[in-house]
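Agenda item 2: flavin-adenine dinucleotide complex prediction
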Amino acid sequence: MGSERSSTEQFDVIIVGGGPAGLKCAHTLSDSGLRILLLEKEPVFGDKICAGGLTANDLRILPVPDEIIEHKISNTALHSPKRRSSTQAQAPFLYTVNRKKLGAWQKSLLDNTPVVVRTKSRVLKINNNHVILKDECKIGYKYLIGADGQASIVRKHLGIPVNKKLIGIQYTIPVKDLDPTLEIHLDSRMFKSWYAWVFPHENSLAVGCCSNPKILPPARLKNNFHQWLDVKNINYSGTKLETYPISYDYRGVRFGNIYLIGEAAGMASGLTGEGIYQSLVSGQEVARMIIDPGYMPEKLDIVLRYNSIQHKIMGLFNWSHTLRNFLHELLLMAMNNNRVKGFIRSAFSPVKKK
Ligand SMILES: Cc1cc2nc3c(=O)[nH]c(=O)nc-3n(C[C@H](O)[C@H](O)[C@H](O)COP(=O)(O)OP(=O)(O)OC[C@H]3O[C@@H](n4cnc5c(N)ncnc54)[C@H](O)[C@@H]3O)c2cc1C
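Presented output:
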């Protein structure tokens, strides 16, 4: 065992992790005058198992350029075991992106800023005022931000466990001439309170599902997923099944001079598994809190309220299998109603200029 090499390096803020949360946080801090260091363990940004679905909310906080967007989706097909409902909104409501391209673009926003970015820099240990990298280099901080995802080392350093997780599993299936329709499959027998998705990408479909491993253990989820793929005649041969946890165990963002953002803070939705928006908002809001200690993070409060509503719905769905099936079918019936369809179409119509 080599001894820890001492280093004179010192930063005001060290951000551990270069996912959507860490990169958004670094960008928001980039003109603060503070010395910022972002450490990413991988050689590239955004190499994350994900369906890559962004909503209009994501684009408002992170105006992703068109060249990064693979599909602008306005067609949805919602399926239950008994019904199918398709809706065409007047304007896109979901945008699919390749996560590596998104990561590279978010990183490019830092290129001409004073933020120091280091890849292949895994943080292995944390002490009260410095982090230690895998090459035993020590770097000092005033503020430390854990943006290092669901298995966060910063969260572990704070002694905060992760007790609420989903397991997401997914195939990326190459397809030629695909139809850019978003498919959501509510099938309680297969996925309990969760669902399966088909997200169209440039030349592929992201087909996946998720569930709470305490309610549907990963081996059963995988088995059910394969049964469901076979029934739907979706050919996944030759493609690799990818699995990754999603944390929704939120305990706060600020712990003295240490902050947690994104999934390190457990900010994903326990019902839908989405987490990019929550990561972007928490990254931006924590940066603003550091710049101005009197800043009130209202957007963060809204996200936390949204997550809390989703977790209540999840609790209701898990409470009764019969109620869940009934609500799924009711939702599909409502979606087949022309008035509801009209409402959805107008809700997503392009904003009229005054
Ligand atoms: C199958 C699946 C599908 C999903 N689909 C969607 C979707 O369509 N839409 C959506 O909104 N969300 C989706 N999510 C959730 C979304 O991917 C995450 O919530 C989001 O990536 C979290 O962003 P983050 O920046 O907090 O963490 P991450 O994206 O996990 O980034 C963390 C970064 O930290 C780095 N890191 C980790 N440890 C260290 C360390 N010790 N030192 C240095 N660097 C470190 C990692 O390499 C990584 O780059 C999905 C998740 C799964 C599993």
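Discussion summary: The chain is about 30% helix and 25% strand.
Owner for follow-up: CH.
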